[in-house]
Amino acid sequence: MFLLNMNAIVGLAGMIAALMLTRRWKQNKRILLLLFNLGFLLVFSHKLFLFYLVYVALNYAGYLFLGQTASARRVWFLLLIAANVGAVVAGRFFEYGWSDSPVLGLFLTLGLLYNFLKVIDAYFFAYFFGKENRASLLDYANYILFVPTFTSGPILRFRDFMADTKKPYAVDAALFEESVKRIILGLFKKIVLVAWMSAVFNYVSAGELTVFHSVFLMVWFYIWIYFDFSGYSDIAIGFGRLMGYTVPENFKKPFLSPTLTQYWRNWHATLGDWFREHIFMFFSRKTPSKLTAAGLSMLIMVLIGLWHGFTWLYVAWGVYHGALLAIENLTNRSLVNKRKVSKTYFYLRCLLTQALVTFAVIVYLPSTKTDLILRIYRGLLTLPSF
Fold first, then answer.
1. pLDDT digits over 90-111, tens only?
2. CA pair distance 366, 201, nearest whole angstrom
3. Is 97 left (phi over 0), alpha (psi -120 to 50) or beta?
4. Directed axis angle between helix 113-129 and helix 73-93, to 10°?
5. pTM, entire model
6. Can you tell me whether residue 329 is helix, strand or coil?
7. Residue 166 falls inside a structural domain
8. Which domain range does residue 239 map to?
9. Does one domain contain both 10 and 82?
């Protein structure tokens, strides 16, 4: 991850200083950002730099074409999306042993999974809005290559990023202080808490596992990945805002979610929002029926599982969460208004939601640790000997 590298942090700090020193230049945010994004990639990896030059150019051409063409727009829209989906699918297959090429693994790991979602969002914008508000190549490239969110989100909306490009660079003392504090908090989570929690997890998981060990590991791992994911988001949000762009919140008090539906609006919120907006927009542009909403919930969660990885465990994870969301939709239990229920009921629902999430969260372990995942689940059936 870029933002944990000290050279990267120094580079980002230098970029922010350059923006502050040139704030009277109206185009400083757009032009300096492009130079920084390209220079950052070039220093990091020549191969990654060349790949993204081609990737951005091809998709920008597709974006312009889709916005201008008047014939067979739906067909072209689907073909352009299919081409990008195909590239990610192929990369996933190579990642799981179909090829020994480290270059392909580098492309997939460093940004493509997140940037692919941004490319699709731009195609949706071009398809539904046509020639209006067409973005320049400079702004489109900045959107795809934006360094603070390049490898791990949060996922930027195309229309929001383009709106920010039109605003002059303006970071006052209050925003500067808030953003720096956010970066420090994120670094503390990633460098201190995550490292310590990882060591504890590895120590406990190395021994014999009973039901108590397995439950502990599931809960511990859940908190661990929260600090991991939210820590990176904190860093990205802080640097993004110091560079003049509003990076959206990715974690919105997910532990206080009384239903799974509300949980997925609060945990990795930009990923859940992306899938809901694009899948619902494409398959159900009107308010869906309960049955349609349940089916789309299942589809979305399976797709999110596959986005995380092409393994049967991720498919099972998607089916599990999809089924729970479908049940909530079909039984009218997808939303709980805190103001209309008792505190006891609200917090019991939050506790139930967290228990359901915790049961499946261990699947987020790397695919190389499938044996450990299964061992933890088997541990739930093993009573300790006294």
1. 777 666 555 455 555 555 555 7
2. 14
3. left
4. 180
5. 0.91
6. helix
7. no
8. 171-247
9. yes
